[in-house]
Amino acid sequence: VRALVVDEGPEDANRTVLDELERGSTSVLLDPQAIGIAGPADLAAVLNGVYLNMTTVALVPGPATNEVAGWLLDLWEASGVAEAERRGHLGLDPFGVAARYGGPPMVDTAALDLVVRARSLPGVRALEVDATPYADAGTSDAGQLASALSTGVAYLRALADHGISLSDALATLSVTLPADTDQFLTVARFRAFRRVWARMAEACGADPAEGAVYQHALTSAAMLSRRDPWVNMLRSTVAAFAAGIGGARSVTVRPFDSALGRPDEFGRRTARNLQLLLLEESRLSAVIDPAGGSWYVENLTAQLAAATWERFRDLETEGGMAAALASGRATAEAEAGWARRYERLATRADPLTGVSEFPDLDEVAVRRPPGPPPTEGPLPLRRSASAFEALRDAADGAADQPTVRIITLGPLDEHADRATFAHNLFAVAGIRVVDGDFESLDSDGPAVLCGSDDWYRAEAAQAASALKASGVGWLALVGKPGDDEAILQAAGIDEFLYPGIDVVEVLGRTLGWCGVER
Protein backbone atom coordinates (compact mmCIF):
# COMPACT_ATOMS: atom_id res chain seq x y z
CA VAL A 1 0.00 0.00 0.00
CA ARG A 2 2.16 2.83 -1.34
CA ALA A 3 0.93 6.33 -0.45
CA LEU A 4 1.56 9.23 -2.83
CA VAL A 5 3.02 12.30 -1.08
CA VAL A 6 2.71 15.62 -2.94
CA ASP A 7 2.41 18.14 -0.10
CA GLU A 8 4.16 21.45 -0.62
CA GLY A 9 7.28 21.79 1.52
CA PRO A 10 9.24 19.22 3.57
CA GLU A 11 7.39 19.88 6.84
CA ASP A 12 3.91 19.25 5.44
CA ALA A 13 5.21 16.28 3.47
CA ASN A 14 6.72 14.82 6.65
CA ARG A 15 3.40 15.10 8.49
CA THR A 16 1.73 13.25 5.64
CA VAL A 17 4.41 10.54 5.53
CA LEU A 18 4.12 9.85 9.26
CA ASP A 19 0.33 9.92 9.17
CA GLU A 20 0.23 7.47 6.25
CA LEU A 21 2.64 5.02 7.88
CA GLU A 22 0.84 5.19 11.23
CA ARG A 23 -2.56 4.54 9.66
CA GLY A 24 -1.92 1.58 7.38
CA SER A 25 0.23 2.51 4.41
CA THR A 26 3.28 0.27 4.15
CA SER A 27 5.29 2.38 1.72
CA VAL A 28 5.54 5.98 0.50
CA LEU A 29 5.94 7.42 -2.99
CA LEU A 30 7.54 10.84 -2.77
CA ASP A 31 7.17 13.36 -5.59
CA PRO A 32 10.29 15.56 -5.19
CA GLN A 33 9.06 18.00 -7.84
CA ALA A 34 5.72 18.61 -6.09
CA ILE A 35 7.20 18.69 -2.59
CA GLY A 36 10.06 20.98 -3.55
CA ILE A 37 12.98 18.85 -2.36
CA ALA A 38 15.97 21.06 -3.16
CA GLY A 39 18.72 19.46 -1.08
CA PRO A 40 19.64 16.54 1.18
CA ALA A 41 18.35 18.43 4.22
CA ASP A 42 14.91 18.67 2.63
CA LEU A 43 14.79 14.92 1.99
CA ALA A 44 15.95 14.22 5.55
CA ALA A 45 13.19 16.52 6.83
CA VAL A 46 10.54 14.72 4.75
CA LEU A 47 11.63 11.37 6.21
CA ASN A 48 12.25 12.62 9.76
CA GLY A 49 10.89 10.12 12.27
CA VAL A 50 10.50 7.34 9.70
CA TYR A 51 11.97 3.92 10.51
CA LEU A 52 13.99 3.62 7.34
CA ASN A 53 14.85 0.01 8.07
CA MET A 54 11.14 -0.87 7.96
CA THR A 55 9.76 1.37 5.22
CA THR A 56 10.03 1.23 1.46
CA VAL A 57 10.71 4.71 0.08
CA ALA A 58 10.00 5.27 -3.62
CA LEU A 59 10.59 8.36 -5.76
CA VAL A 60 8.45 9.68 -8.60
CA PRO A 61 10.65 10.11 -11.70
CA GLY A 62 11.39 13.76 -12.43
CA PRO A 63 14.04 16.16 -13.74
CA ALA A 64 15.93 16.14 -10.42
CA THR A 65 15.63 12.41 -9.69
CA ASN A 66 19.35 11.76 -10.05
CA GLU A 67 20.16 14.22 -7.27
CA VAL A 68 17.34 13.08 -4.96
CA ALA A 69 18.18 9.42 -5.50
CA GLY A 70 21.77 10.13 -4.46
CA TRP A 71 20.55 11.94 -1.37
CA LEU A 72 18.37 8.96 -0.46
CA LEU A 73 21.32 6.59 -0.75
CA ASP A 74 23.35 8.97 1.43
CA LEU A 75 20.54 9.19 3.99
CA TRP A 76 20.31 5.42 4.37
CA GLU A 77 24.04 5.28 4.92
CA ALA A 78 24.14 8.21 7.34
CA SER A 79 21.22 6.74 9.31
CA GLY A 80 23.09 3.48 9.82
CA VAL A 81 20.50 1.35 8.01
CA ALA A 82 21.98 -2.04 7.19
CA GLU A 83 22.34 -2.74 3.49
CA ALA A 84 20.01 -5.72 3.70
CA GLU A 85 17.30 -3.52 5.29
CA ARG A 86 17.36 -0.69 2.76
CA ARG A 87 14.25 -0.87 0.61
CA GLY A 88 13.26 1.57 -2.06
CA HIS A 89 12.76 2.56 -5.68
CA LEU A 90 15.06 5.36 -6.82
CA GLY A 91 12.84 6.36 -9.74
CA LEU A 92 15.62 6.75 -12.30
CA ASP A 93 13.71 6.87 -15.59
CA PRO A 94 15.41 9.20 -18.09
CA PHE A 95 13.16 8.15 -20.98
CA GLY A 96 9.99 8.65 -18.94
CA VAL A 97 11.22 12.05 -17.78
CA ALA A 98 11.98 13.02 -21.37
CA ALA A 99 8.48 11.94 -22.38
CA ARG A 100 6.75 13.90 -19.62
CA TYR A 101 9.03 16.93 -19.25
CA GLY A 102 11.00 17.07 -22.49
CA GLY A 103 14.72 16.87 -23.09
CA PRO A 104 16.97 14.24 -24.68
CA PRO A 105 16.07 10.59 -23.94
CA MET A 106 19.41 9.23 -22.76
CA VAL A 107 20.80 7.24 -19.84
CA ASP A 108 23.54 9.51 -18.52
CA THR A 109 26.61 8.54 -16.55
CA ALA A 110 25.20 9.95 -13.29
CA ALA A 111 22.24 7.56 -13.44
CA LEU A 112 24.48 4.61 -14.25
CA ASP A 113 26.76 5.45 -11.33
CA LEU A 114 23.73 5.46 -9.01
CA VAL A 115 22.78 2.02 -10.30
CA VAL A 116 26.28 0.80 -9.45
CA ARG A 117 25.98 2.30 -5.95
CA ALA A 118 22.67 0.52 -5.39
CA ARG A 119 23.76 -2.82 -6.89
CA SER A 120 24.77 -4.22 -3.49
CA LEU A 121 21.37 -3.37 -1.98
CA PRO A 122 19.01 -6.31 -2.61
CA GLY A 123 15.91 -4.35 -1.59
CA VAL A 124 16.57 -1.33 -3.82
CA ARG A 125 15.59 -0.99 -7.47
CA ALA A 126 17.30 1.95 -9.08
CA LEU A 127 15.83 2.14 -12.58
CA GLU A 128 12.11 2.66 -13.19
CA VAL A 129 10.23 2.02 -16.42
CA ASP A 130 7.18 4.24 -16.13
CA ALA A 131 4.38 3.68 -18.66
CA THR A 132 2.04 6.29 -17.18
CA PRO A 133 3.25 9.24 -19.32
CA TYR A 134 2.16 7.35 -22.43
CA ALA A 135 -1.15 6.30 -20.91
CA ASP A 136 -1.91 9.82 -19.63
CA ALA A 137 -1.29 11.27 -23.10
CA GLY A 138 -3.63 8.84 -24.87
CA THR A 139 -1.37 6.08 -26.21
CA SER A 140 -3.15 2.77 -26.79
CA ASP A 141 -2.70 -0.09 -24.35
CA ALA A 142 -0.44 -2.02 -26.70
CA GLY A 143 1.51 1.18 -27.37
CA GLN A 144 1.95 1.85 -23.64
CA LEU A 145 3.26 -1.63 -22.94
CA ALA A 146 5.47 -1.68 -26.03
CA SER A 147 6.96 1.68 -25.06
CA ALA A 148 7.71 0.37 -21.58
CA LEU A 149 9.22 -2.83 -22.97
CA SER A 150 11.39 -0.93 -25.46
CA THR A 151 12.49 1.41 -22.67
CA GLY A 152 13.46 -1.56 -20.54
CA VAL A 153 15.55 -2.99 -23.37
CA ALA A 154 17.31 0.37 -23.82
CA TYR A 155 18.15 0.43 -20.12
CA LEU A 156 19.49 -3.13 -20.25
CA ARG A 157 21.74 -2.18 -23.15
CA ALA A 158 23.04 0.87 -21.28
CA LEU A 159 23.72 -1.19 -18.17
CA ALA A 160 25.51 -3.86 -20.19
CA ASP A 161 27.72 -1.19 -21.79
CA HIS A 162 28.50 0.02 -18.26
CA GLY A 163 29.75 -3.42 -17.26
CA ILE A 164 26.69 -4.61 -15.34
CA SER A 165 25.63 -8.21 -15.86
CA LEU A 166 22.22 -9.12 -17.28
CA SER A 167 21.20 -10.72 -13.99
CA ASP A 168 22.06 -7.60 -11.97
CA ALA A 169 20.49 -5.35 -14.60
CA LEU A 170 17.15 -7.16 -14.51
CA ALA A 171 17.20 -7.08 -10.70
CA THR A 172 17.56 -3.30 -10.62
CA LEU A 173 14.55 -2.61 -12.87
CA SER A 174 10.94 -2.09 -11.86
CA VAL A 175 7.92 -1.10 -13.94
CA THR A 176 5.02 1.25 -13.20
CA LEU A 177 1.82 0.58 -15.12
CA PRO A 178 -1.45 2.54 -15.02
CA ALA A 179 -4.64 1.15 -13.53
CA ASP A 180 -7.95 2.62 -14.68
CA THR A 181 -11.70 2.01 -14.75
CA ASP A 182 -11.56 -0.60 -17.50
CA GLN A 183 -11.41 -3.47 -15.05
CA PHE A 184 -10.67 -6.40 -17.35
CA LEU A 185 -8.27 -4.47 -19.57
CA THR A 186 -6.34 -3.36 -16.48
CA VAL A 187 -6.11 -6.96 -15.30
CA ALA A 188 -4.91 -8.01 -18.75
CA ARG A 189 -2.45 -5.11 -18.90
CA PHE A 190 -0.45 -6.42 -15.92
CA ARG A 191 -0.68 -10.05 -16.95
CA ALA A 192 0.30 -9.35 -20.58
CA PHE A 193 3.27 -7.21 -19.59
CA ARG A 194 4.65 -9.95 -17.36
CA ARG A 195 4.40 -12.28 -20.34
CA VAL A 196 6.21 -10.04 -22.84
CA TRP A 197 8.83 -9.00 -20.27
CA ALA A 198 9.65 -12.65 -19.55
CA ARG A 199 9.85 -13.30 -23.29
CA MET A 200 12.23 -10.36 -23.70
CA ALA A 201 14.41 -11.52 -20.80
CA GLU A 202 14.52 -15.03 -22.28
CA ALA A 203 15.58 -13.61 -25.66
CA CYS A 204 18.38 -11.73 -23.88
CA GLY A 205 19.66 -14.99 -22.40
CA ALA A 206 18.35 -14.67 -18.84
CA ASP A 207 17.34 -17.65 -16.73
CA PRO A 208 13.54 -18.07 -16.42
CA ALA A 209 13.65 -17.11 -12.73
CA GLU A 210 15.26 -13.78 -13.66
CA GLY A 211 12.48 -12.89 -16.11
CA ALA A 212 9.99 -11.94 -13.42
CA VAL A 213 9.32 -8.20 -13.29
CA TYR A 214 8.42 -6.05 -10.29
CA GLN A 215 5.17 -4.27 -11.19
CA HIS A 216 3.92 -1.17 -9.43
CA ALA A 217 0.40 0.11 -10.15
CA LEU A 218 -0.46 3.81 -10.16
CA THR A 219 -4.11 4.69 -10.65
CA SER A 220 -4.73 6.83 -13.70
CA ALA A 221 -4.55 10.61 -13.47
CA ALA A 222 -6.41 10.88 -16.78
CA MET A 223 -9.53 9.19 -15.40
CA LEU A 224 -10.02 11.64 -12.52
CA SER A 225 -12.59 14.43 -12.79
CA ARG A 226 -12.83 17.80 -11.11
CA ARG A 227 -16.61 17.84 -11.40
CA ASP A 228 -18.45 15.58 -8.97
CA PRO A 229 -15.05 14.36 -7.72
CA TRP A 230 -16.71 11.93 -5.29
CA VAL A 231 -17.20 9.58 -8.23
CA ASN A 232 -13.40 9.32 -8.36
CA MET A 233 -13.63 7.08 -5.30
CA LEU A 234 -15.55 4.54 -7.37
CA ARG A 235 -13.15 4.88 -10.28
CA SER A 236 -10.19 4.30 -7.96
CA THR A 237 -11.87 1.29 -6.36
CA VAL A 238 -12.25 -0.42 -9.72
CA ALA A 239 -8.68 0.49 -10.70
CA ALA A 240 -7.11 -0.72 -7.45
CA PHE A 241 -9.15 -3.92 -7.49
CA ALA A 242 -8.11 -4.65 -11.07
CA ALA A 243 -4.44 -3.93 -10.33
CA GLY A 244 -4.53 -6.35 -7.42
CA ILE A 245 -6.26 -9.03 -9.48
CA GLY A 246 -3.72 -8.39 -12.24
CA GLY A 247 -0.82 -9.11 -9.91
CA ALA A 248 0.72 -5.74 -9.06
CA ARG A 249 3.26 -5.99 -6.24
CA SER A 250 2.50 -2.51 -4.92
CA VAL A 251 -0.37 -0.12 -5.59
CA THR A 252 -0.62 3.65 -5.29
CA VAL A 253 -4.15 5.07 -5.36
CA ARG A 254 -4.36 8.73 -6.21
CA PRO A 255 -6.69 10.49 -3.73
CA PHE A 256 -10.09 11.34 -5.17
CA ASP A 257 -9.35 15.09 -5.01
CA SER A 258 -6.00 14.90 -6.83
CA ALA A 259 -7.33 16.60 -9.97
CA LEU A 260 -8.42 19.60 -7.88
CA GLY A 261 -4.98 20.38 -6.45
CA ARG A 262 -3.12 19.01 -3.46
CA PRO A 263 -5.18 16.32 -1.70
CA ASP A 264 -6.26 16.87 1.90
CA GLU A 265 -6.28 14.39 4.77
CA PHE A 266 -9.72 13.05 3.86
CA GLY A 267 -8.66 12.41 0.27
CA ARG A 268 -5.57 10.53 1.42
CA ARG A 269 -7.53 8.57 4.01
CA THR A 270 -10.11 7.34 1.51
CA ALA A 271 -7.37 6.31 -0.93
CA ARG A 272 -5.55 4.39 1.80
CA ASN A 273 -8.63 2.78 3.34
CA LEU A 274 -9.84 1.71 -0.07
CA GLN A 275 -6.79 -0.52 -0.38
CA LEU A 276 -6.95 -1.72 3.20
CA LEU A 277 -10.54 -2.84 2.74
CA LEU A 278 -9.62 -4.69 -0.45
CA LEU A 279 -6.74 -6.42 1.32
CA GLU A 280 -8.20 -7.16 4.74
CA GLU A 281 -11.89 -7.68 4.01
CA SER A 282 -11.85 -8.84 0.39
CA ARG A 283 -8.62 -10.81 0.87
CA LEU A 284 -7.43 -9.54 -2.50
CA SER A 285 -3.87 -10.82 -2.09
CA ALA A 286 -4.79 -14.26 -0.75
CA VAL A 287 -5.17 -15.94 -4.16
CA ILE A 288 -2.41 -16.28 -6.75
CA ASP A 289 -3.63 -15.09 -10.15
CA PRO A 290 -7.38 -15.08 -9.38
CA ALA A 291 -8.14 -14.23 -13.02
CA GLY A 292 -6.28 -17.29 -14.27
CA GLY A 293 -8.53 -19.72 -16.12
CA SER A 294 -11.11 -17.13 -17.09
CA TRP A 295 -11.44 -17.53 -20.86
CA TYR A 296 -12.26 -13.85 -21.32
CA VAL A 297 -9.27 -12.61 -19.33
CA GLU A 298 -6.90 -15.21 -20.76
CA ASN A 299 -7.96 -14.36 -24.31
CA LEU A 300 -7.72 -10.62 -23.66
CA THR A 301 -4.28 -11.13 -22.12
CA ALA A 302 -3.10 -13.14 -25.11
CA GLN A 303 -4.39 -10.57 -27.60
CA LEU A 304 -2.81 -7.67 -25.72
CA ALA A 305 0.50 -9.51 -25.35
CA ALA A 306 0.59 -10.30 -29.07
CA ALA A 307 -0.23 -6.72 -30.05
CA THR A 308 2.37 -5.41 -27.59
CA TRP A 309 5.07 -7.70 -28.93
CA GLU A 310 4.32 -6.68 -32.52
CA ARG A 311 4.46 -2.97 -31.66
CA PHE A 312 7.65 -3.57 -29.65
CA ARG A 313 9.31 -5.18 -32.67
CA ASP A 314 8.28 -2.20 -34.80
CA LEU A 315 9.77 0.18 -32.24
CA GLU A 316 13.05 -1.69 -32.17
CA THR A 317 13.18 -1.79 -35.96
CA GLU A 318 12.65 1.98 -36.01
CA GLY A 319 15.55 2.61 -33.63
CA GLY A 320 14.03 1.93 -30.22
CA MET A 321 12.28 4.15 -27.71
CA ALA A 322 14.93 6.86 -27.74
CA ALA A 323 14.43 7.35 -31.47
CA ALA A 324 10.63 7.32 -31.08
CA LEU A 325 10.80 10.10 -28.48
CA ALA A 326 13.42 12.16 -30.30
CA SER A 327 11.67 11.98 -33.67
CA GLY A 328 8.20 12.77 -32.35
CA ARG A 329 6.74 9.38 -33.30
CA ALA A 330 5.78 8.69 -29.69
CA THR A 331 3.99 12.04 -29.53
CA ALA A 332 2.17 11.38 -32.81
CA GLU A 333 1.06 7.95 -31.60
CA ALA A 334 -0.29 9.43 -28.38
CA GLU A 335 -2.16 12.15 -30.29
CA ALA A 336 -3.73 9.57 -32.59
CA GLY A 337 -4.76 7.44 -29.64
CA TRP A 338 -6.19 10.47 -27.85
CA ALA A 339 -8.20 11.42 -30.95
CA ARG A 340 -9.83 7.98 -30.92
CA ARG A 341 -10.50 8.17 -27.20
CA TYR A 342 -11.83 11.74 -27.43
CA GLU A 343 -14.33 10.76 -30.13
CA ARG A 344 -15.78 8.10 -27.85
CA LEU A 345 -15.89 10.55 -24.94
CA ALA A 346 -17.45 13.39 -26.92
CA THR A 347 -20.19 11.13 -28.27
CA ARG A 348 -20.68 9.58 -24.83
CA ALA A 349 -19.93 6.11 -26.14
CA ASP A 350 -17.61 6.09 -23.12
CA PRO A 351 -19.72 7.86 -20.47
CA LEU A 352 -18.25 9.70 -17.50
CA THR A 353 -20.57 9.50 -14.53
CA GLY A 354 -21.13 12.90 -12.94
CA VAL A 355 -19.56 14.64 -15.93
CA SER A 356 -21.00 13.59 -19.28
CA GLU A 357 -23.78 11.50 -17.72
CA PHE A 358 -25.90 12.37 -14.67
CA PRO A 359 -24.25 15.74 -13.95
CA ASP A 360 -25.35 17.62 -10.84
CA LEU A 361 -26.22 21.21 -11.68
CA ASP A 362 -26.40 22.09 -7.99
CA GLU A 363 -23.20 20.42 -6.82
CA VAL A 364 -21.16 22.21 -4.18
CA ALA A 365 -17.66 22.82 -5.50
CA VAL A 366 -14.81 21.04 -3.71
CA ARG A 367 -11.82 23.32 -3.15
CA ARG A 368 -8.21 22.31 -2.65
CA PRO A 369 -4.91 24.26 -2.56
CA PRO A 370 -3.46 24.48 -6.06
CA GLY A 371 -0.94 21.87 -7.02
CA PRO A 372 2.23 22.30 -9.08
CA PRO A 373 1.69 23.60 -12.62
CA PRO A 374 1.17 20.96 -15.29
CA THR A 375 4.18 19.75 -17.18
CA GLU A 376 4.62 20.88 -20.77
CA GLY A 377 6.52 18.03 -22.35
CA PRO A 378 5.96 15.96 -25.49
CA LEU A 379 3.34 13.80 -23.74
CA PRO A 380 0.93 15.99 -21.73
CA LEU A 381 -1.70 14.74 -19.33
CA ARG A 382 -5.06 14.57 -21.14
CA ARG A 383 -7.85 14.07 -18.64
CA SER A 384 -10.99 12.46 -20.03
CA ALA A 385 -13.29 14.97 -18.36
CA SER A 386 -11.46 18.16 -19.35
CA ALA A 387 -13.57 19.13 -22.39
CA PHE A 388 -16.82 18.74 -20.46
CA GLU A 389 -15.41 20.61 -17.47
CA ALA A 390 -14.45 23.50 -19.73
CA LEU A 391 -18.12 23.82 -20.73
CA ARG A 392 -19.22 23.84 -17.09
CA ASP A 393 -16.55 26.38 -16.18
CA ALA A 394 -17.75 28.69 -18.96
CA ALA A 395 -21.34 28.42 -17.75
CA ASP A 396 -20.31 29.06 -14.14
CA GLY A 397 -18.42 32.14 -15.23
CA ALA A 398 -21.43 33.71 -16.91
CA ALA A 399 -23.30 36.55 -15.22
CA ASP A 400 -26.52 34.53 -15.34
CA GLN A 401 -26.90 30.79 -15.52
CA PRO A 402 -27.57 29.84 -19.14
CA THR A 403 -31.01 28.38 -19.73
CA VAL A 404 -32.84 26.66 -22.53
CA ARG A 405 -36.62 26.58 -22.65
CA ILE A 406 -38.23 23.28 -23.56
CA ILE A 407 -41.42 23.27 -25.62
CA THR A 408 -43.22 19.94 -25.39
CA LEU A 409 -45.62 18.51 -27.92
CA GLY A 410 -48.33 16.11 -26.83
CA PRO A 411 -49.10 14.52 -23.45
CA LEU A 412 -46.48 13.79 -20.78
CA ASP A 413 -46.24 10.07 -21.39
CA GLU A 414 -45.29 10.72 -25.01
CA HIS A 415 -42.49 13.21 -24.40
CA ALA A 416 -41.18 12.33 -20.90
CA ASP A 417 -38.22 10.21 -22.06
CA ARG A 418 -36.97 12.78 -24.54
CA ALA A 419 -37.55 15.64 -22.10
CA THR A 420 -35.43 13.80 -19.52
CA PHE A 421 -32.75 13.28 -22.17
CA ALA A 422 -32.75 17.03 -22.89
CA HIS A 423 -32.49 17.95 -19.19
CA ASN A 424 -29.50 15.63 -18.69
CA LEU A 425 -27.83 16.65 -21.94
CA PHE A 426 -27.87 20.38 -21.30
CA ALA A 427 -26.86 19.90 -17.66
CA VAL A 428 -23.54 18.52 -18.96
CA ALA A 429 -22.65 22.10 -19.93
CA GLY A 430 -24.22 23.73 -16.87
CA ILE A 431 -27.31 24.78 -18.84
CA ARG A 432 -30.60 24.62 -16.96
CA VAL A 433 -33.68 23.49 -18.86
CA VAL A 434 -36.91 25.23 -17.91
CA ASP A 435 -40.42 24.46 -19.01
CA GLY A 436 -41.88 27.08 -21.30
CA ASP A 437 -44.47 27.88 -23.88
CA PHE A 438 -44.73 30.15 -26.87
CA GLU A 439 -45.63 33.18 -24.79
CA SER A 440 -42.82 32.86 -22.23
CA LEU A 441 -39.91 32.55 -24.66
CA ASP A 442 -37.20 35.19 -24.74
CA SER A 443 -37.04 36.92 -28.08
CA ASP A 444 -33.64 35.50 -28.94
CA GLY A 445 -33.16 32.77 -26.32
CA PRO A 446 -32.52 29.15 -27.34
CA ALA A 447 -35.33 26.62 -27.22
CA VAL A 448 -35.80 22.91 -27.79
CA LEU A 449 -38.81 21.01 -29.11
CA CYS A 450 -39.61 17.70 -27.51
CA GLY A 451 -42.27 15.13 -28.38
CA SER A 452 -42.91 11.75 -29.94
CA ASP A 453 -42.25 10.87 -33.58
CA ASP A 454 -45.99 11.03 -34.30
CA TRP A 455 -46.26 14.53 -32.84
CA TYR A 456 -43.19 15.60 -34.79
CA ARG A 457 -44.75 14.50 -38.05
CA ALA A 458 -47.97 16.27 -37.20
CA GLU A 459 -46.78 19.52 -35.61
CA ALA A 460 -42.98 19.94 -35.44
CA ALA A 461 -42.54 21.90 -38.69
CA GLN A 462 -45.41 24.24 -37.88
CA ALA A 463 -44.19 24.78 -34.31
CA ALA A 464 -40.63 25.43 -35.49
CA SER A 465 -41.78 28.04 -38.00
CA ALA A 466 -43.83 29.77 -35.31
CA LEU A 467 -40.95 29.77 -32.85
CA LYS A 468 -38.53 31.18 -35.37
CA ALA A 469 -41.04 33.83 -36.35
CA SER A 470 -41.31 34.84 -32.68
CA GLY A 471 -37.57 35.56 -32.61
CA VAL A 472 -36.03 32.35 -31.23
CA GLY A 473 -32.43 32.44 -32.39
CA TRP A 474 -31.51 28.78 -31.93
CA LEU A 475 -33.91 25.88 -32.01
CA ALA A 476 -33.20 22.21 -31.44
CA LEU A 477 -35.34 19.09 -31.68
CA VAL A 478 -34.82 15.99 -29.53
CA GLY A 479 -34.65 12.93 -31.72
CA LYS A 480 -33.37 11.80 -35.09
CA PRO A 481 -35.01 13.62 -38.01
CA GLY A 482 -35.28 10.61 -40.29
CA ASP A 483 -36.79 11.32 -43.69
CA ASP A 484 -38.15 14.69 -42.51
CA GLU A 485 -34.73 16.28 -41.94
CA ALA A 486 -34.91 18.69 -44.90
CA ILE A 487 -38.45 19.76 -44.02
CA LEU A 488 -37.58 20.37 -40.38
CA GLN A 489 -34.44 22.30 -41.24
CA ALA A 490 -36.39 24.47 -43.66
CA ALA A 491 -38.88 25.16 -40.87
CA GLY A 492 -36.10 26.43 -38.62
CA ILE A 493 -34.61 23.47 -36.69
CA ASP A 494 -30.91 24.22 -36.17
CA GLU A 495 -29.87 21.10 -34.26
CA PHE A 496 -31.03 17.55 -33.76
CA LEU A 497 -30.27 16.03 -30.37
CA TYR A 498 -30.00 12.27 -29.97
CA PRO A 499 -27.59 9.66 -28.55
CA GLY A 500 -24.34 9.54 -30.50
CA ILE A 501 -23.97 13.23 -31.35
CA ASP A 502 -20.79 15.13 -30.53
CA VAL A 503 -21.97 16.49 -27.18
CA VAL A 504 -19.01 18.83 -26.68
CA GLU A 505 -19.49 20.49 -30.06
CA VAL A 506 -23.26 20.82 -29.79
CA LEU A 507 -23.23 22.15 -26.23
CA GLY A 508 -20.49 24.60 -27.14
CA ARG A 509 -22.78 26.08 -29.78
CA THR A 510 -25.66 26.11 -27.30
CA LEU A 511 -23.61 28.10 -24.80
CA GLY A 512 -22.87 30.60 -27.54
CA TRP A 513 -26.56 31.08 -28.20
CA CYS A 514 -27.05 31.55 -24.46
CA GLY A 515 -24.59 34.44 -24.58
CA VAL A 516 -21.78 32.61 -22.77
CA GLU A 517 -18.26 33.42 -23.91
CA ARG A 518 -15.76 30.56 -23.93
Q: Biggest sheet, open or closed, and with what strands and sense?
A: 8 strands, parallel
User: Uncertain segments of ≥5 residues (pLDDT<50)?
Assistant: none
Indicate the proportion of strand residues: 5-15%
User: Would you count the extended β strands for me?
Assistant: 13
Termini separation comes to 42 Å
The residue fraction in helices comes out at 40-55%
Explained architecture:
The protein is of the alpha/beta class. Helix content is 49%, strand content 12%. The chain has 20 helices and 13 strands. The strands form 2 sheets. The chain has an 8-stranded parallel sheet. Strands 10-9-11-12-13 form a 5-stranded parallel sheet, sandwiched between helices. Helix 4 links the parallel strand 3 and strand 4. Helix 16 packs parallel to helix 20. The longest helix has 23 residues. The model has no long low-confidence stretch (mean pLDDT 95).
